[in-house]
Amino acid sequence: MAQDDAFANAAAQPLSVLTGLGKSLLAALEKAGFRTLVDLWFHFPLRHEDRTGILRVGELRAGVPAQFVATVDHSEVGFRRRRALLVSLGDGSGRVLLRFFHFKQAQADQLKAGARVLVYGKPRAGGYSLELVHPRYRVLGADEQPVVEDSLRPVYPQTEGLGNARLQRAVELALERLPEGDDGLLAGLLPRQWPCLADAIRSLHRPRDRRELEAITSGVHPARARLAFEELLAHHLSLRLVRQRVRSERSPVLRASGRLRRQLLATLPFTLTGAQVRVLAEIDADLGRSAPMLRLLQGDVGSGKTIVAALAALAAIESGMQAAVMAPTELLAEQHRRSFERWFAPLGIEGVWLSSRIQGKVRARALTRLAEGAPWAVGTHALMQEAVCFRALGLAIIDEQHRFGVDQRLAFAQKGGVLRPHQLVMTATPIPRTLAMTEFADLDVSVIDELPPGRKPVQTVAVSRARRDEVVQRIVDACAGGRQAYWVCTLIDESEEIEAEAAAKTASELTAALPRLRVGLVHSRLKAGERADVMRDFAAGELDLLVATTVIEVGVDVPRASLMIVENPERLGLAQLHQLRGRVGRGVEESSCVLLYQPPLSTTAHERLSVLRRTSDGFAIAERDLELRGPGEVLGTRQTGATAFRVADLTRDAGWLARVREVADRLLEQDVGAAEALVRRWVGASARYAKA
Ligand code: ADP
Ligand code: MG
Fold first, then answer.
1. How confident is the model over 578-587, as pLDDT tens digits?
2. pLDDT tens digits for 528-537?
3. What is the CATH number of the domain that holds 70?
4. I need a labelling partner for 174 at 20 to 30 A (CA). Which of 189, 348, 379, 388 fits?
5. The pTM is what?
6. To test ligand 1's pocket by mutation, which of 265, 277, 307, 425 has the most ligand atoms within 8 angstroms of CB?
7. Ligand 1: residues whose CB is within 6 Å?
């Protein structure tokens, strides 16, 4: 199955062989990270623009991008709501309006009555006619005939310093050197009806016509399928190769007597659930071997992962090694610190706390203690800083993994000293199988599939904003009974700043409306320290109501809080709402979650909220969310490490994943060279691969 030489040789040629490029373009490409021909072949367009024809204005349809020529009959700068340049055009068959919110005076001067303009863009329905916001356009000369293009124009993902036209030219030149046929990497492993690699690449860059383009866009084109398959395979392989490499290293064998564990368990006010006992045994089996543990611990919110982490940490500590827990936010890290202190202090085990707030002497002291072998450490990203050095880190635990990328996970494991620490990654987000294949294929999985006894499912209701007063009254009732409540403000798509302002406004409204209650406020614009202080007060019962943005989403544990109100839940993903809702229902009280929506609800929004009302099974919710919203949303928000694919689409291509795994098994067994070549092609020499 060796790689076809013609392909491999052509692919590896430097861009300088493309004599038509010119010096400045070559330099720009190299600066943007393009090195060899293969980099250009696999730089696929995001979409195509059809400028092969010119429509009459009367033929334009809302939502369908098109090109047309029309004459300006009126233009003005309007000031209603927002300053905008409004240009009205027509061609006898109809009229259309162009809107520019950002424009230069020169543009306004150019687009005056009488100007003939070639316009390309996507019309939408406006007040009086179709309109286009910021379309591309060119004012035509007096007798100029607009030239149409003879093929669809690819639009490439933009990179700094490279306009689309230049990228298009570079790819065009590179494609001229694309050998025919296949590269042989996957010979015999793909469905026969799929096109060869060269044809597939060409189709994606330059579909022959609109029909072919539509087949690609709608996902049914075999060229797209072939490349999507390769891409999924490459990502899966990259993680499997990381795993192989890591597993070939050595970790300390952590075999504890169990003395400290028995002591800790004796102090707990509860006994472990069967699921906790089982996953702990799985973890122990790993820790007792010299191959590094790479394990993902999944457990729905409130399933009790923290105590499992603490017990695992004791295995390291009893063996004379160190254990460290890293959490994605100050808030969560602080909470773990409190748990660890509460649990470990009676055993006489003192640890180290590190966050970016810890500075100066205190920090120096913390670093010294880590270097000298302090048994445990809890912290934020601060634990990964270069200055942080452990004497002998035996176990590295990462909480809420989806907030960290794979690279960070690997970097944390570099902190071990001589041997590589075992790694335990924890997440409350149930990872649908599809996602696990491309994001977590390097990890073994343990699942806590049982909640501690006595938990009552959170009663979830959807209530229209029109009934906000009733909801506020519910807070009064709950707090009168000694309980606490959360009020979550959501403003997705707006900036953090606006979201913070909205939360502040809600907090002051509620403070005024509820004079007897103690109201606190947390949002991401507060300094980490201030935020942690408010959270601490809430946890200590010194606040009744906590108004918050979604910063409280993960992990926060306040058992007396039994009521949550989520404003505008329709703006959040299901998995995220489920996480939020998991903040209540942690104690023995009957808990409820009120989804305070803004009517009218769209059908999908309605459907999504009712999924939440019907089920409290995080897995079912995540699967549904994946269908409704796509992978990025399931893993959290945009800042997550979720892979951005060039061609593949997890929702659409999920059906291939079983086959991806089979092919990956075959390659890893028989042709690691091919596996590596695929990874280089699609994932690149990215950090994840290099740093392992
Ligand atoms: P998560 O898995 O969401 O991180 P936590 O570890 O924060 O959950 O645990 C949630 C709450 O449940 C904590 O107050 C914890 O002390 C408690 N808890 C953990 N395990 C058990 C158990 N077996 N029985 C009762 N309560 C438990
Ligand atoms: Mg947790």
1. 888 888 887 7
2. 778 878 888 9
3. 2.40.50.140
4. 189
5. 0.75
6. 307
7. 270, 272-273, 276, 299, 301-307, 428, 452, 555, 557, 559, 586
